[in-house]
Structures are given as C-alpha cells and as structure tokens.
Amino acid sequence: MPKLGMEPKRRAALISAVIDEVGEAGSLDVTVSKIAKRAGMSSGLAHHYFGSKDQMLIAAMRHILSVFSKQVISGLAAATGPRARLEAIVRANFEDHVFDQRKTSAWLSFYALSQSNTEAAHLMRIYHRRLRSNLLFDLRRLNRAAEPIEQVLSALIDGVYLRRALSGAGPDPAAADTVLLALNALLAGER
Q1: What CATH number does residue 68 fall under?
Q2: Domain annotation covers residue 1
C-alpha cells in the first residue's frame, strides 16, 4: 500500500526520470524498469502510478508543456501591443530551457508517439490549437490575411525548432530572429 501523501512526489520523480532517461537514450528505447530505478522506486510502483511507459511520457510532456505555457504567459503579460505579443510567442519557442537536451529528446519522441497513440495525438492537437489561437489573436489585429500568415508562422516555428533540435547544437537566440524576420515580411503584405 502506497504511503499517504507520497503520490505527488513519486509522480514528479517519475516524470523527471522519464525526461532524463529519454534524454540520455535520445529515443523511447527505454524501459519502465530503468525509469523507475532512476526515480528510486520499483517498476511495479511506476506502473501503479502511470500504467505504462506511454502514459509516463504523456505525463512528462504535459509537465513540459505546462512549464512552456507559463513562459508564454509571462512573455505575453510583459508585451504591449500585438507585434510585441507575437514576438513574445516566437521567442518563447526558442528560449534556452526549450533546448535542454533532455526536453528536446522528449519532444522528438513525443512527436513520434503522437503518430500511434491517440492520447498523445490529442495532446499534440491541443498544443497546436493553443499556438494557433495565440498567434491568430494578435495577427487579426494586424492583417486581414491572418489565417494564412498563422499557418506559415506556425510551420516556421515548428520547422526552425526541429532543425535546431535535430542539429544537437543547442539554443540559438538567432533562431527566433529568423522567424521574426519572416513574420515581418509576411505582415508587410496586404493589410
């Protein structure tokens, strides 16, 4: 019988262990046993809390997305005007913490998992919808062609992030500048 009050601590330890293990392996080629051992518990207890390795990865991604969301919200709160808000959203996608090698591996593995796991696919859709909604809110205040601009901007954010992540070179503030230059060109079109 699990000790009372330990569940949140153990779940957090398992989430951290998933991120560490996937980060070291660079893929989902990790076992629940290794994850549990890193978290300081048995694999049976890990299964008790999450049920499967996929559920552990989904919980880890929820955690990563929660941290990311707080960064976006913080950036948006400090921004004044639609252009500044768009810049805050773009910059949040390229901050140093986003390129933590462990998180990058988890993200890339999560993209792969979302192709075969319905819950992971649902979480990915939520992430994309939130990005789309955040971008459209301010793009509509700047340009009549907000929807096509959002589609290109979202693709640029994901594409530049993926290229940077796959290069293994780590964070690069210029990556956000590249996307922002493209945004300026897109906004310079029809108003």
Answers
A1: 1.10.357.10
A2: no
Q: Can you read off the two tokens belonging to residue 167?
A: 């290069």
Q: Could you give the CA distance from residue 137 to residue 132 in angstroms, rounded to a whole number? A: 9
Residue 150 structural domain: 54-187
Whether 90 maps to a domain, the answer reads yes
DSSP assignment of 12-27 equals HHHHHHHHHHHHHHTS
Residue 35 in contact with residue 53, Cβ under 8 Å?
Answer: yes
Q: Helices 146-167 and 173-187: crossing angle, nearest 10°?
A: 160
What's the predicted TM-score (pTM) here? 0.85
For 128-171, write each residue's pLDDT tens digit.
999 999 999 999 999 999 999 999 999 999 988 888 878 877 67
Instruction: For residue 130, tell me if it sits in a domain.
Output: yes
Among 41, 71, 68, which residue's Cα sits nearest to residue 56? Answer: 41
- Cα–Cα distance list, 52 to 23, 36, 175 (Å): 18, 12, 36
Torsion (CA) 103, 104, 106, 110 in degrees, nearest 10: 130
CB atoms within 10 A of CB 58: 21
